[in-house]
Amino acid sequence: MVRLDAALAFSALGLGGVLAHPTIKHLDTIKHIDRRVCNLEERNPLVHKPLTSRATIPKATTWDPPASMVTGLDQQTMKENPDGLKDLNWITDQLMVNKGNINYCIRWANERKSTEAARAATVKALQRSWQKWFDVLVGYDGFPLTEVKINVNGYGVKDKSLLEGSTAGLNIYTDVDSDGVPNCDTRCYRGAHLDGDLSGCPGGEQNRYDIYLQLDKKLEGQFGGFGYNWGEELGPDYFLDNLETENIHILLHEIGHGFGLLDFYDWVPEGQTSFVMMAGSATEITEFDAWMLRDWWRKLKAVRGW
Ligand SMILES: [Zn+2]
Question: How far is the CA of 263 from the centre of ligand 1 (A)?
């Protein structure tokens, strides 16, 4: 928590630079996808401040946001990419296809040692973080799932010796992508096989992964990350030093992008001051975040026929 508080305090001093903007990244298997840049240091310090109390998110069964959020929600709807609904790999899609069972691969793009304890804590941290988003959909507007289960079934690492202790039950990959970043076996990546045909995946369906977490030394010391429906990229120090933190808020923010939610670097929805998708303004998911996700659910549901 000290690190997080320090980051927010640093940001509040306004030491950041220009606003961050989405850029395009080309992956080996997925071309022309958005790579959203999230840097907590690059924001307007006058607008954002951390929450001082726990956010409460009342359960909802239908589209019925509080009056204070209606205008802000309409505004963010107008900014959404209208083609976003055509993307078939949002986290909501992943949840629906896999009935709540999500397999992660960890891309270990750093030179730290990975201990068995840290790997176990990583699964718990991912589970805890996903649960927070998932819970706002449970019981809402026909969302059929009640449980989400996060499983890590692989590590991509340059040198196997970085993985200490038993790696039983894990697929260990030593390939790298075109950028030289340790990669998992893309033949097992569901996002590259949206027709459901994973017959090319060695070991079959059990080795499928839906999403990845990349702990990249390039983000070392930075309170920012990248996120989209392929996964999250974070600094290894930020993530591994906060494994036990209740709200790993940059991770929560990046997962939000995986659901399709946007950044708010250059505008603020009317009446809103603190929510996790407005980077640096909140250290936890708030009710406004919840309603943005519920908005996405009702739209995806309509076009997917769920
Ligand atoms: Zn972001």
Answer: 5
CA 35–ligand 1 middle distance (angstroms)? 9
Per-residue pLDDT of the chain (306 residues; tens, 9 = 90+): 222 323 333 232 222 222 233 333 333 333 223 344 565 444 433 344 555 556 789 999 999 999 999 999 999 988 877 778 999 999 999 999 999 999 999 999 999 999 999 999 999 999 999 999 999 999 999 999 999 999 999 999 999 999 999 999 999 999 999 999 999 999 999 999 999 999 999 999 999 999 999 999 999 988 889 999 999 999 999 999 999 999 999 999 999 999 999 999 889 999 999 999 998 899 999 999 999 999 999 999 999 999
Nearest to 191 by CA among 209, 172, 216: 209
Task: Round to whole Å and give the CA distance between 286 and 133.
Answer: 10
CA 306 to centroid of ligand 1, rounded, Å: 28
Ligand 1 center–CA 161 separation, angstroms = 33
CA-to-CA distance for 167 and 259, rounded, in angstroms? Answer: 30
Question: How many angstroms separate the alpha carbon of residue 167 from the centre of ligand 1?
Answer: 32
* Cα gap 92→147, rounded to integer Å: 13
Domain boundaries, the chain: 2-304
Give which of 48, 78, 71, 80 is closest to 269, Cα–Cα.
71
Gap between the Cα atoms of 219 and 109, Å rounded: 10
